[in-house]
Design a protein that fits this description.
Blueprint (H helix, E strand, L loop, with lengths): L1 H9 L3 H10 L10 E6 L2 E7 L4 E6 L7 H13 L3 E6 H6 L1 H13 L9
Parallel strand pairs: 3-4
Antiparallel strand pairs: 1-2, 2-3
């Protein structure tokens, strides 16, 4: 899994690169993010461990994977994470709005179902 995560980091999409530009180096309100991180049996696009927030950048392939995406999100939520998803076109063409939505989530109270 680590090798796949490394490969994904090296071959990120344009939307992932755009979002990473704004999240890296604590650029977003000093929150630390990591990208393409292994969490149990999944690789998540971006995660802020302090806020227990996962951000997924979804491309067209996710139209056909909605059932598995829901299952994946529910699993990660059971671990205490909040999962938010943005379509690639939103990240590329509505970047400020996406960043505002992320800030709202970062400043929300802790996840309503924290892990035991």
């Amino acid at each position: 899994m680590k090798n796949l995560a490394r490969k994904l980091r090296k071959n990120s999409t344009e939307a992932e690169q755009t979002l990473w530009y704004h999240l890296r180096d604590r650029r977003l309100m000093n929150f630390k993010f990591r990208r393409q991180v292994v969490i149990n049996s999944y690789i998540v696009d971006f995660v802020c461990f302090d806020a227990k927030l996962i951000i997924e950048a979804d491309g067209g392939q996710h139209c056909n994977n909605q059932v598995s995406d829901k299952k994946r999100s529910k699993y990660l939520e059971r671990l205490g994470y909040r999962v938010i998803r943005f379509w690639n076109h939103e990240i590329l063409f509505e970047t400020k709005s996406v960043l505002s939505s992320i800030l709202v989530e970062l400043n929300r109270s802790p996840h309503p179902n924290p892990s035991p």
